[in-house]
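For the sake of transparency, this paper describes our internal protein records without simplification. The record that follows is passed on verbatim for readers who wish to inspect the format:
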Amino acid sequence: MTRLTRSQVQDRNRETVLEVARGAFLRDGYVATSLASVAKEAGFTTGIVYSSFGSKADLALSVLERLQAEQISALGERVGSGASSDVLDRVRQWAAEAMSSGWVRLELELLLDTMNDPRLAAAQTRRQTASIQQAVTVVRSLVPPDSMDDETIEVLAEAAVDYAIGLAMRQSVNPDATPDRFLRLIEPLVAAITPQG
């Protein structure tokens, strides 16, 4: 039997903590989840969790980086599959699933908890910038090559991310808030830029 190196054990422990924390944050929210409860559920001491991540906020940021990449990748897959005529329906389905996953609540709770800490606020800004770049990739997948300049694509991606953040805040107090009005607004644009087929 091969014995794991110290680094491999630390990596395995980190992955376990990330998965357990992800489940707890999405299920219970950021505020209600403690590092002690994550450590207990993962079968570790709180010290192992602290040594792997440093703080609850850093752990949540790591979880959110993965969630963000997965969610935007899932959106890209959704809009890239099927006929261009129903792309907005696929976006609507993705948005409903993303909003009900617990992701939005985690984002908002962490944002409120970290906004007065310059280091964590900077990390949040980096994540938002990354989300815009990921959204740029999705928008590019929708438009025919050379049909739209890079700046316009970036503006559209940023507007979509900004709208999603605003909608997430609205949904936190009004579960009936939906992306439908935004999707109706962009429907002519999507029809104009996507190849028919």
The chain has two domains: 1-54, 56-193. The CA atoms of residues 25 and 33 lie 6 Å apart. The chain has a mean pLDDT of 87. The first helix runs from residue 6 to 28.
